[in-house]
Specification:
This protein is about 40% helix and about 40% strand. With about 120 residues, the protein is an alpha+beta fold. The chain has a single domain, classed as Roll (Nuclear Transport Factor 2, Chain: A).
């Protein structure tokens, strides 16, 4: 009986520890944006993304989005990124070291059991 209780307790601890330990994609993407790491954002991009940058919008490949973001972050060093998330949609305010502010929005979608960014806008 003690052995059964011990096994149940161990099983419960393992279950509780693994619950919520899944990858939090929005947290990692937000951190990459805050640090100005285009590669960190690109890691979670879908193969094709609805992408908009300061008024223009088109469907771009993952590589194209990464290149544009790399140049954007080179010219606009992030100092702070704050926002909110709601059912896979994230909206935040990126403040640069120069004091400029940009609205950043992206949407996560589960494709083939992986959360990826399908929409990404910077205005």
């Amino acid at each position: 009986m003690k052995r059964l209780i011990y096994i149940l307790i161990i099983g419960l601890v393992i279950a509780l520890c693994s619950y919520g330990s899944g990858e939090d994609v929005s947290k990692k993407v937000n951190e990459a944006i805050c640090l100005g790491q285009s590669g960190g954002v690109a890691e979670y991009l879908a193969p094709e993304v609805s992408f908009g940058m300061q008024g223009s919008q088109s469907t771009c490949t993952k590589v194209e989005v990464e290149q544009v973001l790399r140049e954007f972050f080179r010219q606009n060093k992030p100092s702070q990124f704050l926002g909110t998330t709601d059912n896979g949609f994230f909206s935040g305010k990126l403040t640069t070291s120069e004091g400029k502010s940009y609205k950043v929005e992206y949407m996560l979608k589960n494709i083939d059991d992986k959360e990826v960014i399908t929409v990404f806008y910077v205005n």
